[in-house]
Every structure is written in structure tokens, then in C-alpha cells.
TrEMBL record:
Domain of life assignment: Archaea
Family membership noted in the UniProt record: Belongs to the small heat shock protein (HSP20) family.
NCBIfam families assigned: Hsp20
Residues covered by the SHSP domain: 66-162
Signal peptide as annotated in the record: none
Gene3D superfamilies linked to this entry: 2.60.40.790
Naturally occurring in which organism (per UniProt): Methanocella conradii (strain DSM 24694 / JCM 17849 / CGMCC 1.5162 / HZ254)
GO terms for biological process, alphabetical: response to heat
Keyword GTP-binding assigned: no
Protein name (database record): Chaperon, small heat shock protein Hsp20
Pfam entry (one): HSP20
UniProt KW keywords: Stress response
Length: 162
């Protein structure tokens, strides 16, 4: 008998993913094990009048019917203001020298590695940004990136034809 899904239960998908992870762990043989720490989490953000945004983080990801363990996805928040885009990423256990940031178009790539801690994430930027004005700092496990938006043409201007 199929379970009837409650449309107001936003956690049902996560329950299914968690059950799949447990099934994968049960399939492991006696000599098999997973080395290193592993974790999985999600954050839920909802702006007024919009659907909830659910984002995953951690180093365990359900992928096509199996569990993939790899680089950690940091917990990332993106703040879109009038003049800037601010990205805040939680990446404990590394140093600022370990962080590599790359921007191409409207995509920011965050990479960091120190010992067994490896972070990697692509962040979609909500606006075009001026990469020459980018600023980033890392303190107490928190990466803070600020990018100025590229100003769009304002008003109307007559163009003379020569």
C-alpha cells in the first residue's frame, strides 16, 4: 500500500534520503568501512512570498540511488543588496591560505583543502558583479565575500550618429 504524501510535510524528502543512506551502510560487508568523519545537513530559507529554499551541505550526498562521500559542501548564504552581493560560507578547520575563489560570469567557485578537510561548492550569483572590486576575508571558520554589482544603464540617453 502506497503512503499518501502530506503536501505540507517539507521533511518527507529528507526522510527518504536518510533511509537510503542507512540502507547503503547496511549493504557494506564486514571488512568495509568509511574512513573519516561524515555528515549531512540542510538549511531552509524562506523569503516572504516565495517558496522555501532547501540547501544541502556536508560530505555525504545521495546520488542516483547510491551514497557518495567526498568533498564537503559548506553551508553557504547569499545576500543580495542594492549595490552588493555578499556570500557567507562556513568552513571550519582550514586557514585563509587554503581558500581558493574563482568567479566566472554569474558563478562563484569556492575551494579549500587542509589535511582531511576538503570543501568545494559552486554558488550561483543573483546578479552580474565587478570582479575587480571583490573582497574576501576568513575568520573563525567563516568565509565572507563581498562583490559589487555592475551598475546597469540608468535613464535614457540620445546617441548621435556620425
Amino acid at each position: 500500500m502506497a503512503r499518501r504524501r502530506n503536501p505540507f510535510d517539507i521533511f518527507s524528502d529528507f526522510e527518504e534520503m536518510f533511509e537510503e543512506m542507512l540502507r547503503e551502510f547496511e549493504k557494506m560487508g564486514p571488512g568495509e568501512h568509511i574512513s573519516g568523519p561524515f555528515f549531512y545537513g540542510f538549511s531552509i530559507n524562506q523569503r516572504p512570498g516565495e517558496e522555501p529554499e532547501i540547501r544541502e551541505f556536508g560530505n555525504i550526498r545521495p546520488e542516483r540511488g547510491r551514497i557518495e562521500i567526498g568533498e564537503r559542501k559548506p553551508l553557504v548564504d547569499v545576500f543580495d543588496t542594492d549595490k552588493t552581493v555578499q556570500i557567507v560560507a562556513e568552513m571550519p578547520g582550514i586557514e585563509k591560505e587554503d581558500v581558493e575563489l574563482n568567479v566566472e560570469g554569474r558563478e562563484l567557485e569556492i575551494k579549500a583543502s587542509r589535511g582531511d578537510r576538503k570543501y568545494h561548492e559552486f554558488v550561483e550569483l543573483p546578479a552580474d558583479v565587478d570582479i575587480d572590486t571583490a573582497r574576501a576575508s576568513y575568520k573563525n571558520g567563516v568565509l565572507d565575500i563581498t562583490l559589487n554589482k555592475v551598475e546597469k544603464n540608468k535613464g535614457r540617453k540620445r546617441i548621435n550618429v556620425e
